[in-house]
Amino acid sequence: MGYKPRQLGHVNIFVRNAEKAKDWYEDLLGLHTYGFTPGRAAFMSADLGNSHDIALTEVGDDADGPRKGQVGLNHMAWYMESLDDLRDLYFRIKEKKITIERVSDHGHAIGIYIRDPDGNGIEISYEMPAEQWGHDPNKYLMGGTTKGRLSGPWDVEIAEGATARS
Fold first, then answer.
1. Which of 25, 40, 101, 144 gives 113 a disulfide partner, CB atoms 3.0 to 4.6 angstroms apart?
2. pLDDT tens profile 15-53
3. Is the Cα torsion angle 39, 93, 160, 145 positive or negative in sign?
4. Alpha-carbon distance 122 to 10, whole Å?
5. pTM for the structure as a whole
6. Alpha helices of 46-106 — where are they, by DSSP H?
7. Where do the domains of the chain lie, and which CATH numbers do they carry?
8. How far apart, in whole angstroms, are the C-alpha atoms of residue 98 and residue 107?
9. Cβ distance 9 to 71 under 8 Å?
10. Alpha-carbon span 54 to 57, nearest angstrom
11. Sign of the torsion formed by the C-alpha atoms of 36, 41, 11 and 4
12. Which pLDDT value is given to residue 107?
């Protein structure tokens, strides 16, 4: 194949109310709103050099939310610049009493999994630089990485999740 995409451009998700969703994403993640049409859509970005990383398309207050185990978007991931930034956002999530579904230590990354008010899955993550992954091509994804290298306040939740799965 002589071509490949440069990068993922954006994610477009359905929300019940675009303004409420826009306010939530601005408040929690600090996203910038480049465009907003009340009753229709919001276009938001973490990177001011992108027109939008996420589009929030309004479908109405009576719309069903996403359902676990059905075809569709599982979650979108937002990468934080540093482990300190992830730690700060973790405390912000706790402060706002947003339910953390789980925290996963992927070895090369830490992922904090939450849902927006419409039930859309979100992973807030920090990923180590590639040269630190320890990639083993014979294992899953970034296999061969050692877990526990990205310690933080989420360690208790990781341990609780491991106990729940035992």
1. 101
2. 999 999 999 999 999 999 999 999 999 999 999 999 999
3. positive
4. 14
5. 0.90
6. 83-95
7. 7-61 (3.10.180.10), 74-166 (3.30.720.110)
8. 25
9. no
10. 10
11. negative
12. 85
